[in-house]
């Protein structure tokens, strides 16, 4: 499968309120990852282009589906969602798409987890606290979760930049 649609990315308004700014930047980074995967075949998306690392673009998408589920569903929403890709035998299974893994499935799962994340956050104030706690027993406010998610995507989008360039030479935003 070749992905051909280039996701639309829009930076938040320069004068947005805090919630709109955080949601806007998170959505921008979500679409950046999608853009880095756009136009590639499943084989290219499974290519670890930066040896000795085994990191792939498809692995990043699968990982971010896990991250969306963890922070918005499990931690903030109090759900006990089963892991999507990792197992006790392969705790990094999200990063290890096998030869039968498809981007179509990974993308649908990731988009589904983003939709669930939005539903968990909808109607909440930034100071609202999570159901789940840190290892130290503290609750996270929604502001912290949004900020952490932006950081998580920004870091992995840097990886995606290098992976994409290694796959087909593409560079840019």
TrEMBL record:
Gene3D superfamilies: dinb family like domain. InterPro entries: DinB/YfiT-like (IPR034660), MST-like (IPR007061). It holds the Pfam family MST. This is DinB family protein. It comes from Streptomyces noboritoensis.
């Amino acid at each position: 499968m070749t992905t051909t649609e280039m996701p639309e990315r829009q930076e938040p308004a320069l004068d947005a309120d805090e919630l709109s700014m955080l949601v806007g930047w998170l959505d921008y980074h979500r679409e950046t990852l999608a853009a880095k995967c756009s136009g590639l075949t499943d084989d290219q998306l499974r290519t670890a282009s930066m040896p000795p690392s085994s990191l792939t673009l498809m692995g990043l998408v699968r990982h971010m589906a896990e991250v969306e589920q963890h922070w918005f569903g499990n931690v903030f929403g109090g759900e006990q969602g089963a892991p999507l890709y990792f197992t006790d035998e392969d705790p990094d299974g999200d990063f290890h798409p096998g030869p039968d893994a498809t981007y179509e499935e990974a993308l649908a799962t990731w988009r589904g987890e983003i939709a669930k994340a939005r539903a968990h956050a909808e109607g909440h104030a930034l100071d609202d606290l999570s159901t789940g706690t840190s290892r130290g027993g503290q609750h996270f406010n929604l502001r912290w979760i949004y900020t952490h998610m932006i950081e998580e995507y920004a870091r992995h989008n840097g990886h995606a930049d290098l992976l994409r360039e290694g796959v087909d030479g593409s560079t840019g935003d």
